[in-house]
Amino acid sequence: MEQHSKIYVAGHRGMVGSAIVRELQRQGYSNIITRTHSELDLTRQEQVEAFFAAEKPEYVFLAAAKVGGIVANQSALADFMYENMILEMNVIHAAWKNNCKKLEFLGSSCIYPRMAPQPMKEECLLTGALEKTNEAYALAKISGLKYCEFLNRQYGTDFISVMPTNLYGPNDNYHPEHSHVLPALIRRFHEAKVNGLKEVTCWGDGSPLREFLYVDDLANLCVFLMNHYSGNETVNAGTGKELSIKQLTELVAKVVGYDGEIKWDTTRPNGTPRKLLDVSKAEKLGWRYRTELEDGIRLAYEDFLNNPMRAER
């Protein structure tokens, strides 16, 4: 991408999209196009086609998605599949029709089989059954990734995809029921500290292992890949490091400054036992994460404290 290239970031108000916009601006890209949901509904094909025909972006970062944690995914299976599938197909198809130079599709590590060998390599995609709790979202993301690959193979496009691990950081969603584990813990421990609660109960038994990537590190990789990678296979985005949910919970409590007791509700689901990405592909391309987890959680907590509206969403 040249500095003056016309770049469309879909989903610029979300955690990932806003981080990509910040990273592009940091690197001197100035011709960035964005649209809010009220200005452009990506699930409406005619709106998307009209937008691409009028604007003709040269590069597209597709970071728009309907997202949520275990509760949200399980309670709205059909919505998650429909909205994500329609949205991504509309954008990818319109980008191809309007001769976009390059598109980058953002997926999620939940696309990999539930019991995939760990750490998970890019080629383990579609080699086993998916985790049931987020199967609808995963199927939509796999479809977007495959559509990019099939356009490359049939029409010679340069459409790529990146698969991030669990993300956190500025502009995260801290909703008590519809957020992911790390922001949910930040909110829960903050409220427990403010309200002087003696104990906090967390879901499961704390045993699942998880990997977390600071969202600004992902954005840095996204721009890096747009400039340095072409290929049908996706690229994993992560740190290559993992910790248990129990360790994560204790770390968040420490950063927030909550010193009460942590209890575990073992009647609640754990989710996938382990989800670590093999990040050797990105490293061989010359990229590595920068932000260590404790530092990142501090930054995320600052964002939470400075954005009270984020907590209510």
Describe this structure in words.
This protein has a domain of 203 residues: NAD(P)-binding Rossmann-like Domain (Rossmann fold, 3-Layer(aba) Sandwich), CATH 3.40.50.720. 43% of the residues lie in helices and 15% in strands. With 313 residues, the protein is an alpha/beta fold. Helix 5 links the parallel strand 4 and strand 5. The mean pLDDT is 93. Helix 6 packs across helix 8 and helix 8 packs across helix 10. The protein has a 6-stranded parallel β-sheet, sandwiched between helices. A 3-stranded mixed β-sheet has the order 11-8-13. The relative contact order is 0.14. It is built from 11 helices and 13 strands.
Give a quick summary of the entry.
With 313 residues, this protein is α/β, with parallel strands linked by helices.
The average pLDDT is 93
Structural class: alpha/beta
Shape: globular
Q: How many DSSP helices?
A: 11
Q: Which keywords apply here?
A:
Rossmann fold, 313 residues
